[in-house]
Design a protein that fits this description.
Chain lengths: 447, 128, 219
């Protein structure tokens, strides 16, 4: 018997995912061909064509990818290697691929690539491999083949306009709750809800009210201490997160961003300030707005890192005593390669902490956390895959720890998820914090 | 054998040998197509058998190649075999625009092209 | 021989130049039209300043992190790419042909220099070939067409070198040399050699996105 084109001996093939299995079961080669060609004809054009025809198969992008580096330079995990196994093949066969091919394509595009765009800086032609992987995800979405867990978050987005099935009253309740909690510390503290005409609409991702409500607490303390005129909406549209962008459900992505922008418009705010989340920033600042035909977001969007920078620079927050543990900083892809906030982030870190130790590589060249791009949202069955796929991050962190760093600051939820798992798995004894955590600890607070 | 006979044999053999050698030299000398205007040669000069070439090509008149132009018109009664091409086809000193090379090439290669005979590619004329 | 030579050095040259220039123009224009239709935002985000900034970094040897990380590759690929454009344009044997045909000429390099550079090109091609065979991450991406493209690029230089040194069969090799050059030119618009034409646009676009929108470096 002929050997299958792709050897299926990796343990990642044994992962059971109902979303994939059920999706695959509904497919037939005819349907696949029809859907693929329809989507490619309708949605792709010069970019896909140019990228595929310009690539000279040189392999220079390989060392950009944390999956490749973490899998002992296995070429199947190189950026171009992933493109070869997916979009090249699809184009070469003109969409005539079988359901098992789609299973592999989904696995590669959704669980073996974080869309971190590091490879774009290693390809001499600047081929946007993350875009090519997004096209594959889009095809899989249109074929109804998406990992169960992330599809669930997409359903949540669709039903509630937030990622975590947070109901409207639960959301408002959480804000009240955090306000009350924080008032124990600062009696005058308010979390103004639906305050029309505020300077700032503070938006968060749904996991904050769901699991990490203390982040809302801390943000409220920072806002109040700095005397910022902010508000949070009581209606859906408060969530800036977007897993639909990662599953390829662009129609939903458009709805989410529209709701978010319209909420800001309704509140008549001057700008949106968002919490420490990378993917949400990508969605609001880079991807979602484009789907809605906004070249730039219709209302200015400021990421937490940049916002903290402003507050510190303008002296709106005073530091009581600098954080004394040596820290290092994880540059998240979506706000560094996505917004160039690396120097501002360093300004903030150095303003807050006694000792700052760089990890290497850093800034635009930092390794991905391996959780972003929707990968962590594909569910717990892919956890080991993420950890194994980012051994290089463990090595990078270990090297930084050796040089004295005890605390990692990562201003991104996905980076937290990914690094937490890596620290735990490798027994790397380091603390992991948001910038907000540190600011909350070291700032002068009103009484 | 007598001493005398030996000398005669030796002389005959020697003469035969000399004749054999001389007969080779009696063919036309190979000359290189040279021009003092070429300051530095890019390729080795072209070895050229004048008489053999003209015999093969059926050229009788000198001015078929060694032409003379007066006021843009060819003077059919004059020829220029005692001159270098560059005496008429003047080039400025330091002119590396290949103008002179071009006229030499057109003279040889141009004719070969027309007659569909003789060498036309670089390495066919310029030896290593 | 005359007829063949005249054909390959006459009409075929025109054919190859027309295919090269016409084909490249066609590819560019059709891609621009397609982008206007399907990826219209490319026009919105394309920025001359940031596009050129990125291109500049990438066309300078060791101007990017990537180039610095792979010094051998960087040296080889830069000399290779410079040579394959430089040699054919500034080779005296080519210039005299243009001078004869069209009366145009310009500065040229000495044949000895050309000889050395041709060896550099051939050696680079061998380097790329060995890389394709030996390095797993490159081998994995390699298909037959990659070898064909490499052969198309190497052929004019190998045959030219052969002809210049008048090795056995050099007359035939001379003809093959001309044809090989023409094949290479004609192949550019319709193979992955199109990267020669598309490079400024793909790199420029990524540079624009990174520079103007994302305020980050892409090198």
């Amino acid at each position: 018997m002929a050997e299958p084109a792709i050897k299926r001996n990796d343990e990642s093939y044994k992962i059971v995912d109902e979303g994939i299995d059920k999706g695959i079961a509904r497919l037939s080669p005819e349907k696949i061909e029809q859907v693929i060609n329809k989507v490619l004809a309708a949605e792709t054009g010069a970019r896909l064509k140019t990228y595929v025809e310009t690539c000279v198969h040189c392999g220079l992008c390989s060392e950009a990818c944390h999956y490749y580096l973490s899998h002992d330079n296995d070429p199947k995990f190189s950026p171009a290697g992933k493109v070869k196994q997916t979009i090249w093949e699809i184009l070469k066969r003109k969409g005539k691929v079988d359901p098992e091919f789609i299973r592999d394509a989904s696995r590669i595009a959704s669980t073996e690539c974080n869309l971190c765009r590091r490879c774009a800086m290693y390809c001499p032609f600047g081929i946007d491999i993350a875009y090519l992987m997004s096209v594959v995800r889009r095809l899989c979405h249109m074929l109804g083949v998406t990992q169960l867990y992330i599809q669930d978050t997409a359903h949540s987005h669709s039903a509630t306009l937030n990622q975590m099935w947070v109901k409207e009253d639960e959301w408002i309740d959480t804000l009240f709750w955090q306000e009350e909690e924080a008032q124990d510390e600062i009696s005058s503290l308010r979390i103004p809800i639906e305050k029309e005409g505020s300077e700032i609409f503070y938006s968060v991702i749904a996991p904050e009210p769901k699991f990490r409500a203390q982040l809302i607490y801390q943000a409220a303390v920072i806002m109040n201490a700095a005397g910022v005129d902010f508000t949070m909406p009581a209606t859906p549209g408060w969530d800036n997160s977007d897993q639909c962008m990662f599953t390829g459900d662009y129609e939903m992505m458009g709805r989410l961003k529209k709701a978010h922008f319209e909420t800001a418009m309704r509140l008549k705010v001057k700008r949106i300030v968002m919490g420490e989340c990378g993917h949400a920033f990508r969605s609001v600042y880079d991807v979602g707005n484009r789907w809605l035909a906004w070249k730039m977001p219709p209302i200015p969007v400021t990421h937490a890192v940049e916002f903290y920078y402003e507050l510190l620079k303008q002296g709106k927050i005073k530091i009581a005593k600098k954080y004394d543990k040596p820290v290092t900083f994880q540059d998240p892809c979506n706000i560094i390669r996505g917004k160039g906030l690396h120097e501002k982030a360093r300004y903030v870190v150095e303003a807050l902490c006694e000792e700052f130790i760089e990890m290497h590589p850093n800034r635009e060249h930092n390794y991905c956390c391996c959780a972003g791009g929707g990968v962590i949202n594909t569910g717990p069955q892919y956890k080991m895959k993420r950890i194994k796929g980012n051994r290089i991050k463990a090595e990078q962190l270990f090297a930084t720890k050796t040089r004295g760093a005890k605390v990692i600051i990562a201003p991104c939820h996905n980076c937290h998820g990914g690094i937490e798992d890596i620290l735990h798995h490798h027994g790397l004894d380091m603390e992991l914090h948001f910038l907000g955590d540190i600011i909350y600890k070291v700032m002068e607070k009103p009484v | 054998m007598e001493k005398r006979t030996l000398i005669i044999y030796t002389v005959i053999t020697l003469m035969g040998f000399i004749f054999a050698v001389m007969s080779g030299y009696s063919q036309e000398d190979v000359i290189n197509v040279e021009d003092s205007a070429f300051e530095k040669k890019m390729r080795p000069a072209v070895p050229f058998l004048h008489d053999k070439h003209n015999e093969t090509a059926g050229i009788d008149e000198c001015n078929t190649c060694h032409h003379v132009y007066e006021d843009g018109k060819e003077n059919e009664y004059d020829s220029s075999e005692d001159q270098e091409c560059s005496e008429c086809h003047t080039i400025n000193k330091g002119d590396n625009s290949m103008s002179l090379v071009k006229i030499y090439h057109l003279q040889c290669k141009g004719c070969h092209q027309k007659k569909k005979a003789g060498p036309i590619m670089c390495s066919e004329c310029h030896p290593r | 021989m005359h007829d063949i030579y005249n054909f390959v050095s006459g009409p075929l040259v025109w054919v190859s130049f027309i295919i090269f220039f016409g084909g490249s123009l066609y590819r560019l224009i059709s891609m621009a039209v397609l982008a206007r239709k399907k990826d219209v935002f490319v026009y919105e985000y394309m920025s001359l300043k940031f596009g050129l900034r990125s291109i500049l970094h990438w066309i300078i040897p060791f101007g990017t992190v990537k180039w610095r990380k792979n010094p051998l590759f960087t040296i080889v690929t830069f000399t290779f790419h410079i040579c394959i454009i430089f040699i054919p344009i500034f080779l005296s044997a080519h210039i005299i042909l243009w001078k004869e045909s069209w009366g145009i000429s310009w500065w040229y390099i000495s044949d000895t220099a050309a000889d050395v550079l041709a060896i550099v090109v051939i050696a680079s091609c061998i380097f790329f070939l060995v890389r394709r065979i030996v390095l797993p991450e490159v081998k994995y991406l390699t298909s037959i067409s990659d070898y064909v493209i490499l052969a198309i690029v190497a052929a004019p230089f190998i045959t030219g070198f052969w002809t210049y040194h008048q090795w056995p069969g050099f007359k035939v090799m001379g003809i093959i040399h001309i044809v090989a050059g023409e094949i290479m030119l004609a192949a550019i618009p319709f193979t992955r050699l199109i990267h020669m034409i598309f490079f400024p646009f793909t790199r420029g676009y990524m540079g624009s996105e990174f520079g103007a929108i994302r305020h980050a470096k892409d090198w």
